[in-house]
């Protein structure tokens, strides 16, 4: 029998995001967003949330997560919690669980549950347009463009035509030189 793969829990370097919520933290949102290091050969992840105190709060496990970042679709009860993750490989191997990290859900945290990905995708209409404007709002937008917002619409159209005739560069931006001071004028120019 083979040993289960072991999660990579290398601590984040100063320029990396790291594990969130950080161990011992009190996130400002409920539920917090959970982020962990991407795992080699992982095709799916599991996230386990466990209240620290035994009581009415139940543990939650989310399976078949595609990414190493996840925001639960429901809020958590205030109190102390722990979280851990594991992953599944293409060979069907399930890793050991990661270390548990603790966090506290403050009663005044901003409620911010995210709909599940399948719910978000189900909300996208099959017909066009479906980005930024929904089909049922198209006639209202057209009426506004011909009426009270016609000046703004004309300016927007003119700017779009200018960009189409002379498109901005889509080349990869230059890399930051190693000795460049962060947030200097040159750094900001490259960032923009």
Short note summarizing the structure:
The chain is 20% helix and 21% strand.
Tell me about this structure.
Strands 4-3-6-7 form a four-stranded antiparallel sheet, with no helix packed on it. It has a two-stranded parallel sheet with strand order 1-8. The protein has four helices and eight strands; from the N terminus they run ββββββββαααα. Among the domains are: 91 residues, Immunoglobulins (Immunoglobulin-like, Sandwich), CATH 2.60.40; 41 residues, no CATH class. A hairpin with an 8-residue loop joins β3 and β4. It is extended. It is α+β, with helices and mostly antiparallel strands and 192 residues long.
Report the count of strand segments.
8
Q: Strand order across the biggest sheet?
A: 4-3-6-7
Largest sheet: 4 strands, antiparallel
What gyration radius follows from the Cα positions, in whole Å? 23 Å
Helix vs. strand class: alpha+beta
Shape type: extended
The number of distinct helices, counting runs of at least 4 residues, comes to: 4
Write the layout of secondary structure elements.
Elements: E1 29-30, E2 34-35, E3 42-51, E4 60-65, E5 69-70, E6 79-89, E7 101-105, E8 110-111, H1 117-123, H2 138-146, H3 150-165, H4 185-191
Parallel strand pairs: 1-8
Antiparallel strand pairs: 2-5, 3-4, 3-6, 6-7
């Amino acid at each position: 029998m083979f040993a289960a793969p072991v999660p990579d829990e290398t601590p984040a370097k100063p320029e990396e995001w790291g594990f969130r919520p950080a161990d011992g933290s009190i996130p400002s949102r409920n539920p917090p967003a959970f982020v962990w290091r991407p795992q080699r050969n992982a095709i799916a992840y599991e996230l386990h949330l466990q209240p620290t105190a035994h009581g009415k709060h139940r543990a939650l496990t989310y399976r078949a997560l595609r990414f190493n970042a996840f925001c639960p679709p429901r809020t958590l009860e205030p109190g102390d919690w722990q979280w851990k993750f594991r992953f599944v490989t293409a060979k069907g191997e399930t890793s050991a669980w990661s270390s548990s990290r603790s966090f506290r859900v403050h009663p005044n945290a901003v409620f911010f549950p995210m709909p599940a990905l399948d719910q978000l995708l189900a909300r996208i209409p099959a017909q066009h347009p479906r980005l930024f404007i929904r089909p049922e709002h198209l006639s209202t937008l057209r009426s506004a463009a011909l009426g009270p917002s016609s000046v703004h619409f004309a300016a927007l159209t003119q700017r779009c035509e200018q960009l189409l005739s002379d498109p901005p560069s889509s080349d990869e931006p230059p890399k930051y030189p190693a000795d460049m001071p962060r947030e200097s004028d040159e750094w900001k120019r490259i960032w923009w």
